[in-house]
Amino acid sequence: MTQDSNLFLSVGKQVRDEYGHVLGNVASLVVNPNGRISSVYVEQGNGRLTKHSAENFRIEGSEAILLSQIKMQTDTLCDQIPLLWRKNQALKELVEKKKISPEVYEDLHDSFDGALNQLKSEAQALIERIDKETATCAQEVKELNYALVHLEIEHEIGKIDEQSYQTAFSTIQECLKRVNMEKSDLEAMKNKLSNILLGDKQETREETAEESKAQETPAPPSPSLPEPPVVVYVKEMGESGV
Length: 242
Fold this sequence. Notes:
Elements: H1 3-9, E1 14-17, E2 22-31, E3 37-43, E4 49-53, E5 57-60, E6 63-66, H2 69-96, H3 102-156, H4 162-215
Parallel strand pairs: 1-6
Antiparallel strand pairs: 1-2, 2-3, 3-4, 5-6
Helix pairs in contact: 2-3, 2-4, 3-4
């Protein structure tokens, strides 16, 4: 069964994210004239509709899973940035081997550099977005821990019966598990992007050092100076001298 067929079957079904949070239900689909689904409308708990690309969905049983947009962007950038590095390196080797002209090299090199700088800007912006999401997760973990403490206090003094306590305890623990999983994923994504950008800076420094070294003109060796002449002084003797 194709992904499109699965999405047709998901209409009216529940939508969750990768961490198990319920986002709403599939309300409708946007179908292109060729029969392909391009977008999915999700009805949220507050009754509002949100529109998402069909590529961001995965179907598991009777549920539609909305994939993390941040994770998908991270994977794309971590594939594209190293690819442009390799292309730039291959281009450099081609011009050094005189397989392409310097003019063609400069033109393509500028093009690759422009695209690479754009991707690096996107990666930096994504890191900032990840930082904000991570801070939100950290605050949520803090609030859930407070909720757990208050639950324990009220249960301890007999205000909450055992059955209600166990149900609430399981709910909070499940929420903590999901949020901590999301937080760990965000931190891993940030490290991945940071390592990619750090590798680019290191490569740039090495290339700059190599170019500077190649441009340096070694000073000619100093000519060897001749040994100073040895002067011998001869004392003249008088006629009557013996």
